Amino acid sequence: MVNIMQNEIIIRGARENNLKNLNINIPLYKSTVVAGMSGSGKSSLVYNVIYQESQRAFLENLPIQTIGSLIKTPANVDSIKNLPAAFSVSQTSFNRNPRSTLGTFTDISNYLRSLFSILINSMNQENYRDNDFSFNNPKACCAKCNGTGLEYVADLNSIIGDKNNTLNEGVLPYFNSSKKTGEFELLKSYCNDNDIPMDIPFVNLSKKQVEQLLYSEDHKEYNIRFKNAKGKYRTKKSSFTGAYNLVVQSLNDINKSSVYKNIKPYIKLSECSNCNGLRLNNHLLELKILNKNISEVERLNLNELLEWLKNVNEKFMDDNINKLINLIQNKLNPLIEMKLNYLFLDRIIPTLSGGELQRVRLSNQLNNPLIGVMYIFDEPCKGLHKNDIPYLINAFKKLVSKNNTLISIEHNEKFITEMDNVIYMGPSGGYKGGKLLSYEEFYDLNNNPMKKYNKRKFKGFIKYENINANNLSNFKCSLPTRGLTALVGVSGSGKSTLMSMMYDKFRSNDFILKDVSDSEKINQIYILNQQPIHNNKKSKVVTYLEVFDHTRHIYATLEEAKKRDFDISHFSFNSSKGNCNHCGGMGEIQIEMSYLEDIYIKCDRCNGSGYNSKVLEIQYKGLNIADFLNTEVDKLIEIISSKSILYKKLSVLSELGMGYIKLNQASQSLSGGEAQRIKLAKVLGKSKKENVAYLLDEPTTGLNKKDIDRLSGVLHTISKHNQVVVIEHNETFIENTVDYLIDLGLKANTNIEGQALEGHYSDIINKSSIN
User: Fold this and answer.
1) Nearest to 610 by CA among 540, 533, 536
2) What is the pLDDT of residue 63?
3) Are residues 357 and 442 in the same domain?
4) Which of 153, 209, 433, 769 could covalently link to 270 via disulfide, CB atoms 3.0 to 4.6 Å apart?
5) Which family is it part of (predicted)?
6) CA separation for the pair 531, 542 (Å, rounded)
7) Residue 697: beta bridge partners?
8) Cα–Cα nearest to 484, from 219, 184, 722
9) Between 233 and 616, where is the model more confident?
């Protein structure tokens, strides 16, 4: 029976980051959710205090020779008691290696290899081992692709640029990008010799001329004179090879870094032509159980895999086989319960959406025999359609029923109401946050109705066709060149795949324009995904936003700086001219610990500023450079010139509700919601304001109603003269702000063919899956 004195985590005096000396009790063996605005201190409490202290306490009790320097620096907290061992179930940290598949990630592939080795040996009296069926085994894998199932091939869509351009304008970018090696002069000689005009659009060339430019293997030598990278003229003799054939020939030496760099823009990954993507050598692919080799079994969806296992069990009727199949089934069942039955074991982990990945991890934990542990989740509802959330809630309740403690950061109201305990943080973000709020206080802050925008209609469209990737097959869709478009549908329906393919096809000019005027043509594209900004301790907001030069320019142009012959480099903490020579501009001194993680303490020479005393004497409106970098953005906007580039860039941050951020803040300390908006601010802060496509992956992630309202206003404004496409699940945001919908539906399929439901919001909303 649990001791009543140990049924709560007891935290006293938590001051990590922006936490305001918090005292809080969190129930053990229950589910707790932490809610609040972006930057209000949720991550600081959950990760920097609770999770970090749990890790540190656990590691301290391992043999010292085992842990080395793994022990974390203590969190800034007076005391914390009754912490269980903690697991972090994250959406963002995972192996990005294409060899990491659903099967290897869940260990199901290991059991399946054991099953194959036992059965193949029993049928053929051969001596196969489990590892003989692994594509990571050099002796077992396909020799051509080394077990990746993929190979590089020439990409004709990238080799040919905009077909409305001429040869002189670079329609074949391989030759134009190689001007300094004489390739363009060679092209000119060849075209002159074969009467191929270089000043008419590529689309108007004859079929024969196009074939010559792409596939010619001309043996005639031309004398070429050109200017090399050093600006000196060189001459050489060379014969002409068509652009496509040049790339194909270069693939033979693709392992050379110089060759890869040269042809990278003109190649793409495709299914291996030798093993057809099955990863193993031909001999192993001939070994089959119930007419399927192991690679074919790993390409079955999880429901089909269960059926195949059932048939194997019925055919062989062996106790050992039965036990092994039961182990596999026990691993598969939680995945299917989480509605991931459409996946297959060969699915590469980096291609899973955040929502899929988190449910895979959660499914793994449902099989965990450990009890009494603590699970930490960062926005478990992120990436999930409203229809997926009940399955997530049920999984949480199963974990709690095993006497586990669950702590989550979340904004989804349905999820919050189903948890046992709620902690509200606020009242705002950054230095204005870090306090505990009552439900009434939190409700008052977040109950204002969000602004609704009129639905706009546009006639110009970009049409994408022949989209084939993951679960999209011969897919096509159209997006207005202006306005805000949302990609909606359940997790796994193909939204992230579609957005990625839109980006790739735009970059390779593989699209069709419909009713688009010259003034509405899109000439630039950005994609903002959910990857973290930086894990580098030296990365600061000021450097990521690319505003450090503008900041230092302000100080370098001051009269006092000119008198001392200080240039812009004197105001950089990375320069020996301006930084503190004791800490090297870090503002901290690293103390090496023999057995613990290194400790950083404030530098006593520069008092943590990172600058030398001479530089700190230069002041702009009462602030030295260190003071400036440690002042909130909202306050900086009040003192710098409204005509400056710096003002324009910082104003975007303020518009996005991040005026509390300081430029000297470490990038790695940003919460998920803050990191997303920092990325958006960086892109929006660039000078071009029209004819741009912005692709955003769940921009409302980590934001509460107030944050979302601010974001809606910004996106609505920029979408007036630009194309904005978002993957989104937030129904209120979609209802209030979105002009056009592409709905991939309520099913997460392995093969979505043709075209999804799409149209202007007001025309298709009643048919959409968001209802």
Assistant:
1) 540
2) 58
3) yes
4) 153
5) Belongs to the ABC transporter superfamily. UvrA family.
6) 19
7) 727
8) 722
9) 616
In a domain, 177, yes or no: yes
- pLDDT tens-place string over residues 402-435: 999 999 999 888 999 999 999 999 888 777 889 9
Give the position of tokens 């297959």: 344
The mean pLDDT value for 627-656 works out to 91
Cα separation, 413 vs 380, in Å, equals 12
Which domain covers residue 216, as residue numbers?
Answer: 152-271
Residue labelled with tokens 């501009």 = 585
Residues 6+ positions from 75 with CB-CB distance below 8 Å: 14, 16, 48, 49, 52, 53, 56
In whole angstroms, what is the distance from residue 101 CA to residue 351 CA?
Answer: 9
CA distance 625 to 591: 26
Amino acid at site 517:
S
CATH number, domain with residue 229: 1.10.8.280
* C-alpha dihedral, 747 to 750 to 753 to 756, nearest 10°: 30
For residue 601, with 0-12 CB atoms within 10 Å meaning exposed, 13-18 middle and 19 or more buried, which class applies? exposed
What rounded mean pLDDT belongs to the chain? 87
Statement to judge: residues 657 and 547 lie in one domain: yes
Looking up tokens 């024969």, which residue turns up?
A: 208
In total, how many domains does the chain have? Answer: 5
User: Do 406 and 372 fall into the same domain?
Assistant: yes
Query: What's the sign of the alpha-carbon dihedral 490, 491, 496, 501?
Result: negative
Q: Provide DSSP, 138-167.
A: TTTB-TTTTTSSEEEEE-HHHHS--TTS-T
Residue 360 CA to residue 371 CA, distance in Å, equals 19
Whether residues 314 and 396 fall in one domain: no
Task: Answer left, alpha or beta for residue 147, where phi above 0 means left and psi between -120 and 50 means alpha.
Answer: left
Residue-level pLDDT at 534: 67
Q: Which of 219, 251, 271 is the last residue of a domain?
A: 271
* CA atoms of 696 and 432, how far apart (whole Å): 28
Residue 166 to residue 109: CA distance in whole angstroms: 52
Q: Measuring CA to CA, which residue among 362, 410, 442, 443 is closest to residue 43? A: 410
**CB of 50 closer than 8 Å to CB of 42:** no
End residue of a domain, out of 446, 477, 506? 446
Mean pLDDT of 451-464: 92
Q: How confident is the model at residue 356 (pLDDT cuts 50, 70, 90)?
A: confident
CA 434/CA 550 separation, integer angstroms: 31
Residue 542 sits in the same domain as residue 657: yes
As a whole number of angstroms, the distance between CA 477 and CA 462 comes to 8
User: CATH number of the domain that 427 lies in?
Assistant: 3.40.50.300
In a shared domain, residues 612 and 543 = yes
Structural domain contains residue 637: no
311-313-315-320 Cα dihedral, nearest 10 degrees: 160
Burial of 237 (0-12, 13-18, 19+ CB in 10 A): exposed
Please enumerate in sequence order all residues whose Cβ is within 8 A of that of 192, keeping only pairs 6 or more positions apart, or say none. none
Residue 254 has pLDDT above 90, yes or no: no
Mean pLDDT of 322-330: 94
Do residue 211 and residue 302 come from a single domain?
Answer: no
Specify if 740 maps to a domain.
yes
Residue 270's alpha-carbon distances to 28, 44, 390, 684, in angstroms, are 50, 43, 37, 34
Contact criterion met (CB below 8 Å) for 319 and 341: no
Q: What angle do CA 33, 38, 42 make, to 5 degrees?
A: 40
Instruction: List the beta bridge partners of residue 726.
Output: 486, 696
Segments of 75-200 assigned E as strands: 77-81, 86-89, 150-154
Query: Do residue 458 and residue 516 come from a single domain?
Result: yes
640: in domain: no
pTM surpassing 0.85?
Answer: no
